[in-house]
Amino acid sequence: MTERAVVTGGAGFLGSHLCDRLLAEGTSVVCIDNFLTGSPRNIAHLIGRPGFRMIECDLTGFVHVPGDVDLVLHLASAASPVDYLKLPVETLKVGSLGTLHALGLAREKSARFILASTSEVYGDPLCHPQSEEYWGNVNPVGPRSVYDEAKRYAEALTTAYRNSRGVDTGIVRIFNTYGPRMRPYDGRAIPTFIRQALTGQPLTVTGDGSQTRSICYVADTAAGVLTLARDDFPGPVNIGNPEEMTVLDLAKTIRDLTGSSAPISFVDRPVDDPAVRRPDTTLARDRLGWRPTVPSGDGLRRTIDWFAAELGTGDADRATGS
Ligand code: NAD
Predict the structure, then answer these.
(1) 18 touches ligand 1 (CB under 6 Å)
(2) How does residue 3 score in pLDDT terms, banded at 50, 70 and 90?
(3) What is the pTM of this model?
């Protein structure tokens, strides 16, 4: 029997790469998405392909998937600060009601359930690098809380379904991931810097740029998520690349890789923006045998090539949804 997976948020950046990968491995895929922050373009190449089915629906409402399901990958959620600050209630609703419905689906089908959680559960961390034992430093009423607390609640709900409802669950805490299919205007640092560098605009670094990020290429993140999906480990487990750099260095690297001479301009830093971010990936390595393999130079080059093609076709504005 062919394995069948449901991917919520499957028309988003990361979800669409997971759909690709599952299908390539011979798994049938049901993609559930309401295109709130994702796009039909991300899965256009899969429509009509045997084993792929798209169900357009809002996960916070009624969800029904006919037939057997072996795996539920729950990714539906706004994920970029620009999106979740614009969609605060929608973000909290998909983290709470959406997660409840996705867990209910996994329970009904006796499927393994994977929650795509985030490094943002660590907030502005007081412990560095961040290991899974760290409980985090999140402001529950700050602007970012709509995302951070939604994910913390989703982790609690997932744990409760495991302990009291017997669902086979796994929690993956994903760190900053980048790659093709990010939207040029989604507000995250890498697409912003690439778009600015490719169009000759100043690269807008927030604060003095000394805050750090650790960036993971999408193929590595997708492999990590699927490694957890194939295991019975409950997690939480960090998936990310521990290669840490300052945001200023990231901007300069992207500028160099694009061959741009655009200046760097410094703008205000968002409220509660984390000062440091680096995953401790010991658990992922020792328990799951997973480690990232794509160096940032290679991943950034592939991403820049994709953006250059996108911006060259004039599709960038359409991709913003504006
Ligand atoms: P994305 O915005 O590209 O994808 C999210 C998808 O969820 C979109 O297609 C959107 O339309 C869909 N969605 C949102 N609300 C929905 C609803 N109510 N019903 C149905 N579909 C809905 O974001 P992404 O970067 O691909 O992130 C995917 C997941 O991974 C998110 O859960 C995010 O929290 C998590 N994550 C991503 C990163 C990263 O760096 N990309 C880091 C940590 C965690």
Answers:
(1) no
(2) very high
(3) 0.95
User: Could you tell me the distance, in angstroms and rounded to a whole number, from the CA of residue 75 to the centre of ligand 1?
Assistant: 5
On whether residue 229 sits in a domain, the answer given is yes
Q: How much distance in Å is there from the Cα of 210 to the middle of ligand 1?
A: 27
CA–centroid distance, residue 8 to ligand 1 (Å)? 8
The per-residue pLDDT for 1 is: 58
The verdict on 206 and 87 lying in the same domain is no
State how many domains the chain has: 2
Phi, psi of 73 (to 5 degrees): -100, 115
The catalytic residues are: 147
pLDDT digits (tens, 9 = 90+) for 224-270: 999 999 999 999 999 999 999 999 999 999 999 999 999 999 999 88
Inter-residue contact 140 to 134 (CB < 8 Å): no
Q: Are residues 173 and 255 located together in one domain of the fold? A: no
Our measurement of the distance from residue 53's CA atom to the centroid of its chain's CA atoms, rounded to an integer in Å, reads 21
Backbone φ and ψ for 117, nearest 5 degrees, come out as: -90, -165
DSSP per position, 5-47 = EEEETTTSHHHHHHHHHHHHTT-EEEEEE--SSS-GGGGGGGT
Q: Which residues contact residue 134 at a Cβ distance below 8 angstroms, ignoring those fewer than 6 apart?
A: 122, 125, 127
Residue 312 pLDDT grade (very low, low, confident, very high; cuts 50, 70, 90): confident
